[in-house]
Amino acid sequence: MITAVAESFPLNEVFTISRGSRTHSKVVTVSVSRDGQFGRGECVPYARYGESMESVIAQIEGLPERITRAELQAALPAGAARNAVDCALWDWQAKSAGKRVWELAGLPEPRPVITAFTLSLQAPEEMQRQAAKHAARPLLKIKLGGEDDMARLEAVRKGAPDTRIIVDANEGWSPELYTALAPALIRLGVEVVEQPLPAGADDMLGEIARPLPVCADESCHDRQSLPALKGKYDMANIKLDKTGGLTEALALKDAALAEGYTLMIGCMVGTSLAMAPATLLAQGAGIVDLDGPLLLARDRAAPLRYDERGVYPPTAELWG
C-alpha cells in the first residue's frame, strides 16, 4: 500500500527568497507498506515547477500498489512526487533486507559533512544581524535577488567577516546586474554564485565572463538537463525534489562528475526525513546545503544530528 499525506511544519522565522516568503514547510509524506515492512519518504511540492500539494498527492495516489523503483522512473516524471515514493521504496527495501540504503546502493558508509546555513532575503541591516548571529558557522548561504543586493552583501560580510560565503540569486538577476556585481562578489570572498539568471534565459552565461564559479539550480533537474548546462555553468546543484528521488540523483551525480562539474547537494525547506537520503549524495560533494531542519521550529522524531562536524547520516529509525 502507498499512502500520501500533506503535513505542515512551522519555521523558526519567516523564510524569504526572490520569489516570495513562507512561514511553514508544507510537505507530502509518503509511506509504503508491504510484506510486513514499511518505508517513508518526503517531498516538498514547488510551485516554480508547476507542483502543488494536491497535484503531487494525485500523482502518488495514481500509482500501482506494488510498483518497483525501476518501474517508478518511467511512471512519473522527475519531480517531487517521484522523489517521495522513490525514497520510501529505498527505505522499505533496506528494512526488508536488514541493511542500510548505502549498502544496497554500493556506496561507502556515509560520514558527517559540513553544510551551509541559509540566510533568507531581508533588509541589509537584518541580514547583518543574522550573519553576526551565525558567524561561527563555517559556511553561510545568502539569498539575494532583490534591490539593494550590494548593500546586503556588504552587510553580511561585516556581520560574519571570517565565514565562507556562497550566494543564491534564485533567478533574480539580469546579465547586466550579474556583471556589475561580480567584482564585488570576489572582493567580499564569495565562493560561488547560484542561478543568477532565469532558467531558460541563461544563455548569456556562456558569453559573459564568469570570474567565480556559477552553479545551476533551477536549470538542473536530472541527467537530461546536463547538455544545456555546457559552457554556462561550472557547478550543478542536485536536489532530490528535482531529480525525482535518490535513484536518479545518484545517476545524475555520476554523470555530472564525468562531465567535469563540481557538485552542490541542496534541498528544499523540508524536515530531516527529506534530508536523510541527500546525506548519501553529499559524500564528496564540493558544497553541501542540507540545512532544512535547522530552519524548522519542529522536526521529525529521530531527527538528523547537526554539530560542528556538520550533518550526520540518518539513523535507521528515521530512514534508510
Summarize the structure.
This protein is an alpha/beta fold and 320 residues long. Helix content is 32%, strand content 23%.
Walk me through the structure.
Helix 1 (53-61) crosses helix 3 (80-97) and helix 5 packs parallel to helix 6 (149-159). It contains 11 helices and 13 strands. The strands form 3 sheets. An 8-stranded parallel β-sheet has the order 4-5-6-7-8-9-10-11. Strands 1-2-3 form a 3-stranded antiparallel β-sheet. It has a two-stranded antiparallel sheet with strand order 12-13. The mean pLDDT is 95. The longest helix is centred in the first third of the chain and has 18 residues, at 80-97. It has helices at residues 53-61, 69-75, 80-97, 101-104, 124-133, 149-159, 175-187, 226-229, 240-243, 246-258, 272-281, and strands at residues 2-17, 20-34, 37-43, 117-119, 139-143, 164-168, 190-194, 214-216, 235-238, 262-265, 287-288, 306-307, 310-311. The protein is α/β, with parallel strands linked by helices.
